[in-house]
Amino acid sequence: MKAAWYEKFGSAEEALVVGDREDPQPGPGEVLVRLKASGVNPSDVKKRAGSFPNLLDEGYVIPHSDGAGVIEAVGEGVSGDRVGDGVWVYQAQYGRRFGTAAELVAVGDERAPLLPEGVTDDVGACLGIPVMTAHRCVFADGSVEGQTILVTGGAGRVGHYAIQWAHHAGARVIATVSNEEDDRACLAAGADAVVNYRTEDWSSEVLDANEGEPVDRVVEVEFGANLAEVLKLVRLGATIATYSSTQVPQPKLPFYQMMYQDLRIRLVIVYAMPEEAKRRAIADIDEASRAGKLQHRVAHVVGLDDIAKAHVLIEDGGFRGCVVVRP
Q1: Superfamily designation of domain 2-126+296-326
Q2: pTM (2 decimals)?
Q3: Could you tell me which CATH class the domain 130-271 is placed in?
Q4: I want to staple 128 with a disulfide (CB 3.0 to 4.6 A). Which of 7, 90, 137, 192 is the partner?
Q5: What is the pLDDT of residues 271-320, one digit of tens each?
Q6: Within 10 Å of residue 42's Cβ, how many Cβ atoms?
């Protein structure tokens, strides 16, 4: 099969190689998927750059956790009826070396849910990390109906879906953005109000947008950088669900202030989600997709030979939506 891989850590141009590798075979409980699209996420480029120093101890790595394609064969214990199913793939390169940046991938049967009717392969390759992360952030701590949720970075990959999940679940949604284009995108996704986080003391504008009342929950994209402002706008007993802290990777916590606010801090990553939470997310993704309730944005699509370009796009940012590689 044709695949992309790396045998050393480094820049995309230096580390990524494209060529031929032996076809994988499905083991017990696995399915073999012929991939039509592979999604690229920040965790993929961080791994390639060396964020997991032991990742290459056993040999080369085929990157990317998300993808979409068609089941071509099944391993022992999996129904042969699955052959021919269109599926989306998540968590392909977690705890193992072989991901979706290839023509074929063998994954656990449960990691290849049916692709909802009407969903393209390119979109299917974006359902894993962005949509499941957003789902976990919104729903991990119970119903949000009637609550107010702040989604920081609402125009980002996860924020875009968090707005939609919260909106469809009956929450009032306030999002933060940095420009008018993102403002419009958040409103179109279902936000009730939008605040520019580049404004000094933006927390007061969030409170104004919520009629002076503190918010119930926060879906946070920059935990360390935003914490001081967020603590000004949350109610007693609020939940902050965060999935990233890139600008301040080792935040300093004002412990007593947070304790007296009786806050719950939830750290979210798809890989560590309980299996039941993953199953619920998959079921909700299927239902929402079939009902046409989810908006998607595929910003860039490149061929496998240009995978380095896809990684650079993720690293550079400056756009909204997902990046897809077609094997």
Answers
A1: Medium-chain alcohol dehydrogenases, catalytic domain (3.90.180.10)
A2: 0.97
A3: alpha beta
A4: 90
A5: 999 999 999 999 999 999 999 999 999 999 999 999 999 999 999 988 99
A6: 15
